[in-house]
Design goal:
Elements: H1 2-25, H2 33-96, H3 116-119
Helix pairs in contact: 1-2
Length: 122
């Protein structure tokens, strides 16, 4: 980005210098107005491009700084509050779950059972 900014600044300075030099030193010759207007237009557009590129680079630097500050603040808040929130959520979830009820196992008596053959009607 800086190469583009400085190259447009160089184009602007060269265009202004060439327009001034040709208008000052070529007073004996008639310089067409179209050439002067073209050089002024090139100088203005290069100057505007330089200004826009400079403003873009400054805005990008400020955004990077803002993002860096926000990330550091979020990290600080996470260090102070993060553990408390996780314990709170875990306690809430554990408190919401019902207590497990013991499963009743079938109890078989130890007395002898009559077989089916013996219990059939006679």
């Amino acid at each position: 980005m800086t190469i583009a900014k400085w190259s447009t600044a160089l184009v602007c300075v060269l265009a202004v210098a060439l327009v001034l030099l040709t208008n000052v030193f070529l007073t004996s010759h008639d310089l067409p107005a179209l050439v002067s207007l073209y050089a002024v237009a090139v100088a203005l557009s290069a100057g505007l491009a330089t200004l826009l590129l400079h403003l873009h680079s400054r805005l990008d630097a400020k955004l990077d700084l803002t993002i860096e500050v926000l990330v550091s603040r979020f990290d600080d808040v996470n260090e102070r509050v993060g553990d408390r929130n996780s314990a709170f959520i875990e306690g809430y979830v554990l408190g919401r779950e019902p207590d497990p009820q013991p499963v009743a196992a079938p109890v078989l008596s130890m007395r002898a059972h009559a077989s089916r053959r013996n219990s059939a009607p006679r």
